[in-house]
Amino acid sequence: MKEEILKVAETAGYLWEKGWAERNGGNITVNITEWVDEEMLSLPPLTPPIPIGKVLPHLKGCWFYCKGTQKRMRDLARDPMGNGSIIRILPDCAHYEIVADKSVAPTSELPSHLSVHDWLLENGSPYRASLHTHPIELVALTHSRKWLEKDAATKMLWSMIPETKAFCPKGLGIVPYMLPSSMELAMETIRTLGENYDVVMWEKHGVFAVDTDIMSAFDQVDVLNKAAQIYIAARNMGFEPEGMSEKQMAELSREFGLAK
Ligand SMILES: [Zn+2]
């Protein structure tokens, strides 16, 4: 458990250092149910039951670490339990209570993050972590229609450096602009993840990524953003980068057994 929380703190530090987490920007939630021990099960709740605003049937009895509302990633990096909290979902699947360490209210994005976790469990996914952040170069890409076409950005990013496809083999799904924090955005995110993506781009806003743990979710975003930086560096040198060929990328998928 401690190790998982430390991974969250380490990731939050990277988000701040990269300039992806201005003010209270970004969110992290991790399903920590598998690390809950007997001692934790007996912890008294710090709050009365709080409504989620939705019924999420697959989260019955699940435990989550959630970034706190209005909390900063840079503060969370040095004090994860002062800027986030552990919650457990009650048997009605519609309420939660805060259990540790302090009654830090979870992110206002909680209903949408929990909806994604509910969907992951429903589909038997091994993924337990979700990350929302504002990677500068990837967000900049979404200000051009060209890169909002399905898989246009994916193909360009994959073609910048072989590791991008190797370490983000499903590419970058695209979700058109929608009001931040809206349930509509959450539902469209789930629909796009369901089209076989681990990372989805919210137009003119940021990314939402899922993976087995928070560090792996961060890594996928990091390799995609690195590829965007290489594209920009080439453009800044005054030319359109050539990119690896379709043949080279197909060879990569074949040799390394990649998903796409
Ligand atoms: Zn955001």
Question: How would you describe this protein?
Answer:
This protein is α+β, with helices and mostly antiparallel strands and 260 residues long. Helix content is 40%, strand content 17%. The protein is built from ten helices and nine strands. It has helices spanning 2-17, 38-41, 73-78, 110-122, 136-141, 152-158, 162-167, 183-193, 214-236, 246-256, and strands at 27-31, 50-51, 63-67, 84-89, 95-100, 129-133, 172-175, 199-202, 206-211. Strands 2-5-4-3-1-6-9-8-7 form a nine-stranded mixed sheet, sandwiched between helices. Strand 7 (172-175), helix 8 and strand 8 (199-202) form a beta-alpha-beta unit. Helix 4 runs parallel beside helix 8 (183-193). The radius of gyration is 19 Å and the shape is elongated. It starts with a helix and ends with a helix. Residues 25, 132, 134, 180, 205-206 line the site of zinc ion.
**Number of helices, where a helix is a run of at least 4 consecutive DSSP H or I residues:** 10
Helical content, roughly?
A: 25-40%
Shape: elongated
Q: What is the CA-atom radius of gyration, in angstroms?
A: 19 Å
Unreliable spans are none
Quote the beta fraction.
15-25%
Order of helices and strands: HEHEEHEEHEHHHEHEEHH
Distance between the termini: 34 Å
Tell how many strands the DSSP assignment holds.
9
Summarize the biggest pleated sheet. Answer: 9 strands, mixed
Bound molecules: zinc ion
- Average residue-wise pLDDT: 97
Structural class: alpha+beta
- Main sheet strand line-up: 2-5-4-3-1-6-9-8-7
